[in-house]
Every structure is written in C-alpha cells, then in structure tokens.
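Subject: complex prediction, re-run

Hi both,

The earlier run crashed halfway through, so I resubmitted it with identical inputs.
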Amino acid sequence: MSETEVSSRAALSSGKLPVSGPTDGPLTPEELQLSARNHSMPIEALRYDITPSGLHYLLIHFDIPMIEPAHWRLSIGGQVARPLELTLDAIRSRPSVTMPVTLECAGNGRSRLHPRPVSQPWVTEAVGTGLWTGVPLAGLLDEAGLDPTAVEIVFTGADHGMEKGLELDYARSLTIGDARHGDVMLAYEMNGQPLLPQHGYPLRLLVPGWYGMASVKWLTRIEAVGEPFQGYYQIGNYHYRSSPDDPGAPVRRIRPRALMVPPGFPDFLTRQRTLAAGPCRIEGRAWSGEAPIERVMLGIDGAWAEARLDPPQGRYAWRRWSCDWEAEPGEHLLSCRATDASGQSQPLEQNWNWIGVGNNMVQVVPVSVR
Ligand SMILES: Nc1nc2c(c(=O)[nH]1)N[C@H]1C(S)=C(S)[C@@H](COP(=O)(O)O)O[C@H]1N2
Ligand SMILES: [Mo]
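This time it finished cleanly. Structure:
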C-alpha cells in the first residue's frame, strides 16, 4: 500500500472527508466539465432493444487507461489456495456466456433533485442495454479455491485518481455470495465487439441487476479478503445518506424506472416537443434490478392508463412498452411509471439523499400538440 493510500484510509475511517453540500444554485463549471466527459444515452435510443455501442451512457471517474493487451494480466489472489495470473487469450478461451444487460448509473436523476448534490449532473438518461459476453466469475473463483476465511472479493480497475482529497484506485467489493451469483461475469465483449476503451477494455466486471458502480471497468486485480473492504467507493460513496454523518444503506440493485421516447420533434435549445394532433403511439422501456417489470402506466395530464408490455428480452434487460394516445391540441404533460414484481413503483416525488443516488422519480415530458 502506498503512503497516500495509507493516509487516505486513515481520513476515510476518521470520517474527515471534505464535505461539499448540495445546492440550488446554477450548474457549476465542474458539473459542466463532467457532463461533457460522461454522456448519457440520447433518449430516442430507447427505441433499440440493444443500445448501439456509441450511444450507451458513460461514467468514467478518472482518465480512461490506455491498456496494451499483450502486457495486460488479470490476477486473482488474496485468500485463495491457487493464485491465478491470466492473459486475455486465456480468459477468451474459456466457455463464455452472452446476455443482454441494462446498466444504469446510480446517480441517474441527480440534477432533478432540489437541492442538487454537486457531482455528475445526470438528467434521466444515464442508462443503456448492452449485449455482454464474458466468462462467469464463479468458475474462476472455484478454480482459485476461495479460503473459508474469505468474506468479500475486491475488484480493482487500472484507473487511478483523487476524490475528496483521497488518492485512489477505482475499486469495489462484493460479498462472496453476491460474487458467486451465477450471472456475474467478467466481460470482454459488448455488442459482439471487444470492449471499447471507454467501457473497460480489455475486461470488466459485470454485475447484472446492480447499479453501474458495481461493474468495475479496466479490471486488473481480483482479491479475496478476510475483512469487509473499506475503500472509498465502497464505504465513502454509494450510500443512501440523509446527511454527511448518516452511514446510510449501501446502494445495490437498480430501482424500477420507465422512460418514454419523447413523441414528436424537439426544439433545439429547450427540447420542448411539438406533436401533430391525432392518434399517436407512445413507446419506451422499463427495467428494475430488484424484480421483473410487471406494469407500466402512461400518465396524460395526471390521468393514468395501462401500457402494453412486449415480451421480456431477458431477466436483466429493459422491456419495451407502448400505449396509444389520441393527442388533442394544447399543452400536455406526459409521464410514465413502472412497477416491478416486488411491488415497488416509481415515486412521483424526488427520492432525495445526500449524494443524489437512486432518484427514480417519474419522467415528465411536456408536449405542445397542434
Ligand atoms: N474502473 C472503473 N470502473 C467503473 C467506473 C470507473 O470510473 N472506473 N465507473 C463505474 C460507474 S459509477 C458506472 S455507472 C459504470 C458505467 O459503465 P459504462 O461507462 O460502461 O456505461 O462503470 C462503473 N465502473
Ligand atoms: Mo455510476
């Protein structure tokens, strides 16, 4: 461990992190800079079952590391019987699985919060569905032979930077049970192509059903540890805190959300929609990492109608929905609301917390019909 890492850990465990509070002020230059680096999915791309690679959202905390595949290795170590060092070819030669998985950033919806936590200022479109190919993690863990004393698996990426004055690698852990879940994979392809640099080339963790922070990109190290991991992205961030001193519950699975493709055409600056009067089909997608989507409602000026659901395309991928509407001239507010099989529905009011995670409040689309 480097000296900065040691002092970082001390600061983290003493709770002495700089606190920057939420604001209702104008967007800051720092938020603008982040939103230019980390783009969301253009919302009309909800039309695709699988998001074309360049349209998938991106969240990159530091710099995209430049990785030379010939020199890259994945190490699997810590409390295991047989530590492994694997080349990309060795990983690619193992039996693979391919699965559509919807990823969503935990911060999606943040800029719609009042007051607004200052970070990546997502609106509602930090989401995308990739067709991911990789090797199941459980088999590799079995091969390494987890020690019975191991309680968590720590996943570390090749990227490095600072946050809140701490110098860090991007690293997250899963409990042994979560890591051994049959659908967790080490992914090396997205949409039938090697991962793009921005999505974690050459290898990333993919934890289906969980918010994106769990799916560590540019993976270099997997380590079995005997104590719960205390890294910044595990305990200093990604918790539903009501205040900076509230420990809060950890962010895990994706809360239900439905989004619609805004109908008609947009105004360049405001995105306000214009639509011709008459019959109109509204369509969108709905997903939840907690349980399968069971119901989507379309709201027209506050009156809710049942949307039709297409067949699901897999447990972890968004589901298409559609609903017909006889658009009458005038100004209207359209919304959509998903409910999953666990009975959770999207809230109509904001889901506020200190860092602005898990805000799955319903989308509202103003339209002018003429
Ligand atoms: N190494 C590393 N992994 C990472 C991140 C990162 O910054 N570094 N960002 C995480 C977050 S917060 C999200 S939402 C997803 C985004 O994945 P994507 O950019 O492929 O959509 O990656 C996760 N994995
Ligand atoms: Mo994220």
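The radius of gyration is 21 Å.

- K.
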